[in-house]
Amino acid sequence: MKKFLFALGAMAMLISCEQKQEGFTINGTVTGFADGTMVYINSADENSDTGLTKIDSVAITEGKFTFAGKADEIDMKYLEFGQEQMYYLPFIYENGEITVVYDKDKTENTKVTGTEGNDSFMTFREQTKPVEEKIKRFEEENNEKMMQARMSGDETVMNELREEYMKIADELGEVSKNFVKNNKNFASLMMLSQLHQNKQITDEELIEIYNGMDDSLKATKVGKDIQELVNNAAKLAIGQPAPDFSAPTPEGTEESLKENLGKVTVIDFWAAWCGPCRKENPNVVRIYEKYKDQGLSIIGVSLDRDKDAWLKAIADDGLTWTQISNLAYFSDPIAKEYNINAIPATFILDADGNIAAKDLRGQELEDKIAELLAK
User: Residue 347: CB partners within 8 Å, gap ≥ 6?
Assistant: First the structure.
């Protein structure tokens, strides 16, 4: 699959709901392409192998191309230059005069400007550029080291590199979070969804920021999608009762959360393929052995697809508590109800089955369990 031009393409959806004219024109100037090379506009399509579907095309003539039409709804689209380029260029599909400057060999100098949304995108890109350059340098300097560690199975080196990378990624998240908080527009609405998916904002922050958005933003398709996240987040707030659920065990019998409630209960979302989950499992095993006789219950919800891999991970990691899975990856209905977009993820419930804490690991997880058991 071709990779997007910008590392966080979803965060590139920086747009305005206000339309300036009836239709749009996209005037592009490109370098490095022969006349006759086709330029395509792609739309997101989850049913496509690439995740995108071509909706329009024009040919490059003397280094230029032009699209014209009308955007019935503001959206995120992707420009594709020929079919051999390894990039899609995200842009804001909105009415107005849009200008594209693109050099095949200097993609970092790409500019998409002219409308309020695309101008906002460029502003955001300037804010994130220093951190993105830091990410690029890190990848260039450590790519070979990571490959060697994977080949040799050196978990220590791999974990060290992951932690270093995540520190830089968190910097990018902070820049994005500040943009969202300081710009109550469609741009921040789009990034709000991505920040929540990446667990860079809490459910409580999601609700607060979204509620501060204008009603016209909430009425958009993206706004309605986020409203669903907000509704679920409100149900999953600290102090709320954890929604009940059930799914098959490895043996094929149905087990529910209600049947597994203890004095303290941990709902642990994980998967055999999830490296950070597997890294945390020894800690969870230790905690379970230490506190199970005091009333600790754990129910593992796997987002695996492959049953054999799931069963092998349970055995290899010594997970002796209740395990269930619909083998549906992130389409699992339990994952959807609990707003799970990334794993590992945990919910810690008190004796009444109410949510007492979320997403704790390591010593923080043990401390919270000990605190609740002592009550």
Answer: 236, 242, 266, 267, 338, 355, 357, 358
Measure CA 11 to chain center: 10
Task: Determine the Cα angle at 12 with ends 51 and 97, to 5°.
Answer: 100
The predicted pLDDT at position 21 comes to 56
Cβ atoms of 15 and 120 within 8 Å: the answer is yes
| Cα 302 to Cα 327: distance, rounded to the nearest angstrom | 7
3-114 CATH pick, 2.60.40.10, 3.90.1720.10, 2.60.120.10, 2.40.40.20? 2.60.40.10
pLDDT at 157: 83
Read off the pTM.
Answer: 0.64
Instruction: Please state the domain extents for the chain.
Output: 3-114, 121-235, 246-373
Written as one string, the DSSP assignment of 159-183 is HHHHHHHHHHHHHHHHHHHHHHHH-
Instruction: List all residues 6 or more positions away from 139 whose beta carbon is below 8 Å from its beta carbon.
Output: none
Q: Which two tokens stand for residue 178?
A: 């500040």
The Cα 84–Cα 7 span in angstroms is: 19
Per the structure block, which two tokens stand in for 328?
Answer: 């549906």
Question: Does this chain's domain 3-114 share its CATH topology with 246-373?
Answer: no
Give pLDDT < 70 ranges for the chain.
Answer: 1-21, 85
Cis peptide, bond prior to residue 344, ω within 30 of zero: yes
What is the CATH code for 246-373?
3.40.30.10
